[in-house]
Amino acid sequence: MFTSREIISTLEMLKSENLDVRTVTLGINLLDCAGKDLQRVKSRITESIMDLAGDFVEVCDRIAQKYGIPIVNKRIAVSPIAVVGASFSPPQLVEVAQSLDAAAQKVHVDFIGGFSALVEKGMARGDRSLITAIPEALSSTERVCASVNVASTRAGINMDAVLLMGKTVKRAAHLTANRDGIACTKLCVFANIPEDIPFMAGAYMGIGEADAVINVGVSGPGVVKKAVERAFATNPSMDLGSVSELIKKTAYKVTRVGELIGREVAEQLKINFGVVDLSLAPTPHVGDSVGEIFQTLGLLAIGVPGTTAALALLNDAVKKGGAFASSRVGGLSGAFIPVSEDLNISEAVRDGHLCLEKLEAITSVCSVGLDMVALPGNISEETISAIIADEMAIGVINNKTTAARLIPVPGKKSGDSAYFGGLMGHSTIIAVKNADGDNPFLRRGGQIPAPIHSLRN
Question: Long-range contact list for 194-197, CB < 8 A, 24+ apart?
């Protein structure tokens, strides 16, 4: 139950601090749709989505109105299509993606994730076909999102898959060159991907999940910023231990809101409630920025010395507060730093405070990784693969989830602007050293072995 003080505090968050439920994501198991007849598989996928998600958006809207808590996005995550469509060719999998897109449109969800493959230890036929299909699938659909897990702490890094993903990213950008490579905004390359992410573009329905599940993503960078500002106004000399405690308490309140909404949606749909993902996921709007939190803490901008320490404090406090509020905290839960989706972070790139190397460094302590990073259009496939490989190594060695959502913008160079629209925002294209350099290291392929601390049995 909520106390009176919690209710009043939450109302203030809703009124003036941009608190919302960023996404309610319905996970749907499609493994029973698998088969060799393309038309039958497409038909069964559509039937499953319509059956489970037909009332999904209506229920979310009704509950949002009941509590006065905005639910910004309603999304669907499905089983990895590389498994469901393992027998299909790349052109056939593009058709499957188009069926997913059409079904998502019919049930009025914003995105549908799960055009995915898990290849950290090797690639099967279905995995190769899906990866080959990704550029055409994402460029010919509006709502479909893709993810490929190429590494894990237990398996190491599949460098053959990493090299292939560099080519895939480049091809996806080329096919949407007239929209600044927007297909790449719907593609994530992962290490240690969780099975219960509600946020796109990484969401998919994990193999270990039930037939259907509701996962909730609650964001609150504006709430955290305001809480810190108020505390500093009252006590300008507050130390960082006290700041951590304050953020932890704030995260607790936000998590409680997410669990309330998620459980009620699940109850009304008569399916399982999964997790609350408390990730500080920003938007391009002023006041809803993770970057602004760094400035409130006293840094000139994200990217200056002290940024990594500040992000470590923030991420840890958010996780601790969420864990205290709910036994169902999952997904990623922490602080996202998507460059184009956060106006303040994008401005830090423009002003020269944040470079690619510093961005990579701070991903060692954030929730995801190199997220929504616009790159020069002339960057080579191998350099994209090398950037992905570096990010995967951070995840594997640190036993954490990391991801790369990279967008080589055709025809543009560092310092230019890329525009993706809506939630995807816009960004200054970040400079990349040796962007077109030769990289024999990547071409060796094979498997970078799992680290010694993976042997935990």
Answer: 194/330, 194/331, 194/332, 194/401, 196/27, 196/274, 196/275, 196/277, 196/330, 196/331, 197/77, 197/277, 197/331, 197/332
